[in-house]
């Protein structure tokens, strides 16, 4: 099992913690991690774009001029794609971009992402994270003590003082054990977990 240092909010090491290899020490599967990221970004797309084809734009019911003798190229409709105001060739239509991925694959991808953070020393465990009031400056002080900037903070419960204090800091997000995802784990330079959040993640994914 991987041993990691446990820090307090002042950035001082207060102990160590063993991480469950079933979650934080798996063999990294780069292919599944890639699929998970592509899936997540694809599923965020609305798919509501729409343009009209030549059969949907208005007008163009008659031939603009006779076939021969005008000196112009022959034309059958003013709504052809080459005309201003004409239809779009192979116009986009509303569609669903959803990509499916098996549950076991999704779980392994997340474990692989967490394992990579551990191996790169980009995972920090806090003994606890509690703020007396909603104050951005207090949350910034904690991050400064830990010497991190772009971070994903995972809490065991929805502590509003912490969530609201972190909300206004650029490049910092908060998450719960059941809302973490591969894209965010990889996007942020550091993953900060409370000890209770580690326990929750291991309970769900081990």
Automatic annotation (TrEMBL):
InterPro entries: Ribosomal_uL4, Ribosomal_uL4-like, Ribosomal_uL4_dom_sf. The keyword RNA-binding applies. Keywords: Ribonucleoprotein, Ribosomal protein, RNA-binding, rRNA-binding. Gene3D superfamilies: 3.40.1370.10. One of its GO terms (cellular component) is ribosome. Residues 43-85 are annotated as: Disordered. Part of the 50S ribosomal subunit. Forms part of the polypeptide exit tunnel. NCBIfam families: rplD_bact. Belongs to the universal ribosomal protein uL4 family. This is Large ribosomal subunit protein uL4.
